[in-house]
Amino acid sequence: MAPDLHYSTIEKPSIAEFKDRGSKFIAYVYPIADLIEFKEKLAALKKEHPKAVHHCFAYRLGLDGTTYRVSDDGEPSGTAGRPILGQIDSKQLTNMLIIVVRYFGGTLLGVPGLINAYKTAAALALEATSIIQKPVVVYYRLQFDYTQMNDVMKLVKQFDCVVLKLETQLFCLLETGVPINRLDEVLFRLKELRNVGLEKC
Question: What's the whole-number average pLDDT of the chain?
Answer without folding.
Answer: 94
